[in-house]
What does this fold into?
Amino acid sequence: MKKLLFYSDSSSFGGAETYLVALVNALTKKGFNVSLIATPSFFSKFKINNSITIYKMMLSKSIFDLVQLLRMRKILNELQPDILHINFGTVYSAIPLLLLNFPKRCKVIASVHSYRLPDSKYPLIAFFRKMLVRFILSKIERFILTSEYSKNEFCRLYGITEDKVDVIYNGLADEEGVVEDSEIRGKYQIKSDEKIVGLVSRLVNLKGLECFIEAIDILEKKGNRAKYLIVGDGYLRDKLQRKSASVSKNIIFVGHIENTEKFIKHFDVGVFCSESENFPYVILEYMRAAIPIVSTNVGGIPEMVRHMEEALLVPKKMPNMIADSIRKILNNNELARDLSAQARQRYEANFKDHVMISKTIEVINQ
It folds into this structure.
């Protein structure tokens, strides 16, 4: 069986990391010899199959980090992998290992979750940065992207030919036996007859969180009452809490929790307001839980859910439209039931994890 070495330099805990954990655990069960290089915080957060060989490294993105380069070279020499699989947190992630893989030792596959370069006010720096990334990407045999939207953008930005790119939608295991946490309403003082509008997200830029709070303000001023749960954490939490304090006492910051599916099952509406996405796992979690969805229509989201079929979709940065869509669902039980049922059906037909795994194995075996 092929020996696979996976690499992630991520220090965050989002969709890219969820994808990687699901993939390496599943491939191990399929009999592949899997090793993984990642940060200590990654291994402390996620449960990794005991059969996977792990290498904990405080990863630097600098190609001049000699200690890191020497350790990676030792790992490559010891493992002699058939395939190096890089989980792109940024397009710079691949630089150290690709340098060490020259001259070519093994096939390189990259799962690309983020591909945009940081802005620079200096045109010459921006130009050379882009040329460097194009050179790096030219050394990779296959790319996996999570939506047709991201594939088209990626190829356009970096001159990658479409024949080198596979689109494989993220998949999510069915959480059989998961039940609602019966203590949630009591813990957050939510009455049995109160509706719950929930949003699950990291509290960081581009997630549209201020737009959600503005939408709540609109709903409250028009007399629509509900409890609004914001599930997640991040560096914007304090700022968002200050903003929400002047809007409504019905906004509850839950913070980071494990097993978000137990919370999601309580939602009467699942909201997602992001300004930029590829193929967010949160939407899959809403679909799996069979709840009505209100989301921005950015990135690959329209490939996941269709407007007025599985969700109500609106443009980004439009709090009035977010509020109006939430209100429609809260006031129309038939619409809520139809959206929920169709979202669950589309999840079952297209977005279970075994589909993602089988298609990835096809790429590995090419």
Notes: Residues 183 and 361 are 41 Å apart (CA to CA). The longest strand covers residues 33-38. The mean pLDDT is 90.
